[in-house]
Amino acid sequence: MCQLLGMNCNTPTDIVFSFTGFATRGGLTDHHSDGWGIAFFEGSGVRHFVDYQSAVSSPVAELIKSCPIKSQHVIAHIRKATQGRVSLANCHPFVRELWGRYWVFAHNGDLKNFTPTLDGPYRPVGTTDSEMAFCYLLQELRKRFGDTLPSLADLTPVLRELTTYIAGHGPFNMLLSDGSALFSHCSTNLYYIIRQHPFASAHLSDQDVSVDFSELTTANDRVAVIVTQPLTTNETWTQFAQGELKVFVDGAVVE
Q: Is 91 tagged catalytic?
């Protein structure tokens, strides 16, 4: 299956270090070579890059690794195709509009017999179960809340209900964001770490690359990184419980 990477911060931060290790799994240290993608929120806009080439051979991935785009919300994905052919239309993350905001979604898993009726404005462009699930999520949110953006307190339990339902059809590890919060649901494997003062050094598990975050941050910075498998060898990552939905705002978990 695929792998996920997300970042949520209290101040715009680049994801070059984490993405460098993550992209290596897209065909070099792992077999997720059927395309990749990444999306960065910047204010109300989104920078969105996808490629059907593997992350280790894609010139676009090299651009991301060499260009420190700063964002408070980032979602990335490397694909091992289970449903849908290798094509640009099937590359995650997917982007749609709801309530005047862009929503970004990526999924790791394999949903079986998931054929919901889509009777709203959202339709898949590609042929993956993942994009189908994304369209279903947005459709059901619009049905529940109409044209009014709900509060985080109202939105979270509905997302928990919907993700639990979808996960009944198979593994549903997913990242979802509208640029104000990052929602993470775990069916099988998902880990997170929160980096904050005092910052220390970190060493990638997939490359011989280290960084001293104390040289790059201020005492007020806080960064949450969410990933399918831990990216570093010298940090303590927290594993999600199966069936758990976590919400990250400003680099912290919101209960």
A: no
Residue type, 133: A
What count of residues does the chain have? 255
- Calpha distance 67→62 (Å, rounded): 9
Residue 33, token pair as written in the block: 């070579």
Name the residue with tokens 């059907």.
Answer: 52
User: In the chain, where do the E strands start and end?
Assistant: 3-14, 36-42, 45-51, 70-78, 94-98, 101-109, 172-177, 182-185, 191-196, 201-203, 210-212, 222-227, 238-239, 245-249, 252-254
Q: Distance between CA atoms of 61 and 254, rounded to whole angstroms?
A: 31
Would you call 31 helix, strand, or coil by DSSP? Answer: strand
Q: What counts of helices (H) and strands (E) characterise the chain?
A: 4, 15
> pLDDT tens, position by position, for the chain (255 residues)?
679 999 999 999 999 989 888 888 765 655 546 789 999 999 999 999 999 888 888 889 899 988 899 999 999 999 766 666 778 999 999 999 999 999 999 999 999 999 999 998 999 999 999 999 999 999 999 999 999 999 999 999 999 999 999 999 999 999 999 999 999 999 999 999 999 999 888 988 878 788 889 888 889 999 999 999 999 999 999 999 999 999 999 999 997
How many Å separate Cα 24 from the centre of its chain?
Answer: 17
User: Can you spell out the DSSP letters for 214-245?
Assistant: GGT--TT-EEEEEESS--BSSS-PEEPPTT-E
Model pTM score: 0.94
Sequence-distant (6+) residues with CB within 8 A of 153 are: none
Catalytic-role residue among 2, 91, 135, 186: 2
